[in-house]
Specification:
The chain is of the alpha+beta class. Helices cover 43% and strands 18% of the residues.
Length: 337
């Protein structure tokens, strides 16, 4: 239980008084490694093939006009109008066009030649954020903002597991107009600085992605009883809350099952159905997420960090961290230094 709030504590860290909010805890696990964003203006007829991109969540926001989105070979399509957004929890081969009958072109055809001839990756990155993309014929105009959000796969985004492959967020751009206008502008301003601006641009992309997932949870998933029931599981919410508050604790399966008032086998099955992981995998990811934040942003020694995330020694922590991330705590800490 969080401590009782007192008026004299008004300047204390609000996280110290945060109630149990399982969905909020899940959203806090979102970590991106990079972002690409493009402002795209298209005149009908136009059609684009978007390839699958590994470890990538895509967001398409329609600013003006309309378009259709579908998977090649699929019989159904999604129509997007101004103010709508489409979220791809994990990118797949996708088609986006002014109309479903319009022939599709490879995405490379939409990239301006001045970007294709960039002298370096930094120049291409900066140019993509600062140069609008225009393509198509002479017909109706559609304006899009498309974002590729690259996921740090070490940090599991639990809520993605039960989401459909394509998520229509009807009216997302209208309801969050001011937030998106300011955030996407700042994202673009930082992105056009190339790799120097990626750190801030990536954090801003996390804010947009978190808002999109939250919008889905609040407005869409209520009509999908399976996914909404999973994230709001009244039994597992107690377990999630306890783990998030103290991932460094010595969590035994029997102890977690008892907290959920389930048998060991029933608890493991229910936990895996919601998270896609075993409790130990889930706890390790949270511990390593916290350790990474301390290594990258704090000033504690590796031994102190090991203790704070529940390891008895620096050596055991270093071995576990290497298995999880493929690198050592010392290397991560040196990057900060």
């Amino acid at each position: 239980m969080p401590p009782v709030f007192r008026k004299k504590d008004v300047m204390e860290n609000p996280n110290d008084y945060r109630p149990s909010l399982p969905l909020d805890d899940l959203l806090r696990t979102i970590r991106l490694t990079g972002v690409l964003q493009g402002l795209i203006q298209l005149a009908s007829p136009w059609g684009c093939k978007l390839p699958r991109v590994n470890d990538c969540i895509r967001i398409h926001l329609v600013l003006a006009g309309s378009c259709v989105v579908y998977r090649e070979g699929a019989s159904d399509s999604i129509c997007l109008a101004a103010g709508d957004a489409l979220l791809e929890p994990m990118s797949s081969s996708l088609a986006i066009a002014d109309a479903i009958e319009t022939p599709l072109q490879p995405m490379e055809n939409f990239i301006p030649s001045r970007l294709k001839s960039a002298d370096s990756a930094n120049d291409f990155l900066a140019g993509l954020f600062s140069t609008g993309i225009s393509y198509g014929g002479g017909g109706h105009i559609t304006q899009l903002v498309s974002m590729n959000c690259y996921v740090d796969k070490r940090f599991p985004i639990v809520m993605l597991k039960n989401m459909p492959g394509l998520v229509l967020l009807r009216g997302f751009g209208i309801q969050h107009r001011e937030f998106l206008a300011q955030t996407l502008h700042q994202l673009s301003e930082n992105g056009r600085q190339g790799f120097i601006g990626q750190a801030i641009a990536t954090r801003l992309a996390e804010a947009v992605l978190t808002s999109a997932i939250r919008y889905y949870l609040d407005h869409v998933s209520r009509h999908d009883s399976k996914s909404h029931r999973g994230w709001n599981d009244p039994v597992l919410s107690k377990v999630f809350s306890a783990i998030y508050q103290a991932p460094e604790s010595d969590w035994k399966i029997a102890r977690l099952a008892d907290k959920a008032s389930l048998s060991r086998s029933a608890f493991l099955k229910r936990f895996a159905s919601v998270t896609g992981q075993t409790p130990n995998e889930f706890i390790t990811s949270l511990r390593m997420m916290r350790a990474t934040e301390l290594l990258e942003n704090g000033y504690d020694s590796i031994a102190q960090i090991a203790t704070s995330v529940g390891y008895a020694s620096e050596a055991s922590f270093s071995r576990a961290y290497h298995r999880w991330s493929g690198t050592t705590p010392g290397i991560v800490k040196k990057r900060r230094d």
